[in-house]
Amino acid sequence: MNNLSTPLEKPTLRILSLGAGVQSTVLALMAAKGEIGPMPDCAIFADTMYEPIGVYEHLNWLKKELPFPVYRVSIGDIKQDSLNGVNKSGTKFVAMPLFTKAGGMGMRQCTNDYKIQPLRKKTRELLGLKYREKSKGLVAETWIGISWDEMQRMKESRDQFIHNRFPLIELEMRRYQCLSWFEKHYPGRVLAKSACIACPFHNNDLWRDMKVNDPVSFEDAVDFDKKIRNLPSYKEEQYVHRSCKPLDEVDFDNAEDKGQLSFLDECDGMCGV
Fold this sequence. Notes:
Distance between the termini: 20 Å
Radius of gyration: 19 Å
């Protein structure tokens, strides 16, 4: 067992961080079947409100399969907030890691603001802790669906009231083994690809798949890409694709455009964290 993934003997709560992608879905279903334990008290899905429709359909199916509640939390619509330049309350600039022709990517605040913080807030609420209140010995064991081949993504929580656990690491399960497990138990069912529709970390394979198999989402991403080009909140032209070309002009089969960064397939629960 990895030293970063040690189950607590008596946590106040066991909470599963659910991204609705491959690993966290399999983790939740294995827990439901008693293959990983003890049973979580609940799961939390942090909703950016900008996922493909297939993710929400999958989430609704998954909620029916699980014997524990799934809480859906959100601080707002990341697409609209990004176009507005500030969050829903108007108190914080929204930064997505977009590309510029000057090179590099912008700051990535979106993971923290739209995934991690809503999860932390809901965990506090479930523990009965007020904002900034000390843990008083209360602690939530948070299960995160990172697989063996993504071990470098493991991190300890900086919060006293959260203890991160990585059950798939404990089982030495890789992503392909998670897929095999799901196909064995739910033959014919297709898993959703969990990530914001216009996430700059999509690789060309994912963009190509979206363009062919989910044209509605692709057109949404194209629309977003056009609208971010000259936003007053940014000093330079912004692009969703690393080629710094309009998304609807990118040849996803062209070798020069390959190499788009990737969060090892999906934003599974904590968007690369």
